[in-house]
Amino acid sequence: AQSVTQPDIHITVSEGASLELRCNYSYGATPYLFWYVQSPGQGLQLLLKYFSGDTLVQGIKGFEAEFKRSQSSFNLRKPSVHWSDAAEYFCAVVTGGGNKLTFGTGTQLKVEL
Amino acid sequence: DAGVIQSPRHEVTEMGQEVTLRCKPISGHNSLFWYRQTMMRGLELLIYFNNNVPIDDSGMPEDRFSAKMPNASFSTLKIQPSEPRDSAVYFCASSPPGSTDTQYFGPGTRLTVL
Predict the structure, then answer these.
(1) Coil, strand or helix at A29
(2) Which is nearest to B5 in space by CA: B89, B68, B70, B93?
(3) Measured distance CA(A65)–CA(A105) in Å, rounded
(4) SS3 A12
(5) In this predicted model, what pLDDT tens digit does every residue of B89-109 receive, in sequence order?
(6) How confident is the model at residue A42 (pLDDT cuts 50, 70, 90)?
(7) What pLDDT score was predicted for residue A97?
(8) Which B residues, 11 through 40, put their C-beta within 8 Å of a C-beta on chain A?
(9) Which chain A residues are closer than 8 Å to B55 by Cβ?
(10) CB neighbour class for B39 (10 Å; exposed up to 12, middle 13-18, buried from 19)
(11) What is the pLDDT of residues B15-58, one digit of tens each?
(12) pLDDT tens for residues B58-72?
């Protein structure tokens, strides 16, 4: 079954530093992959998605992600983190014939000022 | 534009009581999803509707849980009777036609069953 793994439960970075959050997927064909962000007390917001084509995907809030088939990865990056980026980040993959999202366990990002 | 609306935002109830969570999807969206989020199990899809029809309810934990979507602008998730292990944040999400993979989430309902 398709799934995603987020190996890092917690990550702490300094404001202004670069960020990379890891996501590995398990799927034979090209998966549909997503990154969502959840701020405290809020619902999830879509940052970006990858279906096909260019493997570097740009999202909102200055985030980007790169699909690497050879590594089965879809890591999220941001060149300079802002304190407001502190949140929980979820990688997700479409399953069930395109109608269901399966989420990873999430990575909690803390930003030190 | 209004996003997905959920009510109540917080619910505290006692074990054995009936709980009803409500969701209003984004206007024009025709798919609706109910998720549950807990520390132990993360985000789980409970059920989703397409054009008001339940398509997949395999994630509904047991018969105590039921969901309805009587029209395109309203859905309920009911738990009867509630148990302490049902304590979680319940999210509703909707998606537009032809794009069920792009889901817009509501703010969630935090349910505490004592």
Answers:
(1) coil
(2) B93
(3) 18
(4) strand
(5) 999 999 999 876 788 999 999
(6) confident
(7) 62
(8) 31, 33
(9) 99
(10) exposed
(11) 999 999 999 999 999 999 999 999 888 899 999 999 999 998 98
(12) 899 889 999 999 999
Residues of B in contact with A43 (CB under 8 A): 4, 91, 93, 105-108
Q: Which residue has the tokens 């009510």?
A: B7
Interchain CB distance below 8 Å, A105 and B48: no
- The tokens of A91 are what? 């990688």
Q: Which residues of A54-78 are buried (b: 16+ CB within 10 A; e: fewer)?
A: eeebebeeebbbbbeeeeebbbbeb
Distance (Å, rounded) from C-alpha B66 to C-alpha A38?
26
Q: Which residues contact B82 (CB under 8 A, 6 or more apart)?
A: B13, B14, B15, B16, B17, B18, B19, B64, B111, B113
Which of A100, A102, A105, A107 best probes binding to B when mutated, by most B CB atoms within 10 angstroms?
A: A100
Contact status of B54 with chain A (Cβ, < 8 Å): no
Cβ distance B42 to A34 less than 8 Å, yes or no, reads no
The Cα of B91 is separated from the nearest Cα of chain A by a number of Å equal to 7
Cross-strand pairs, B45 = B35
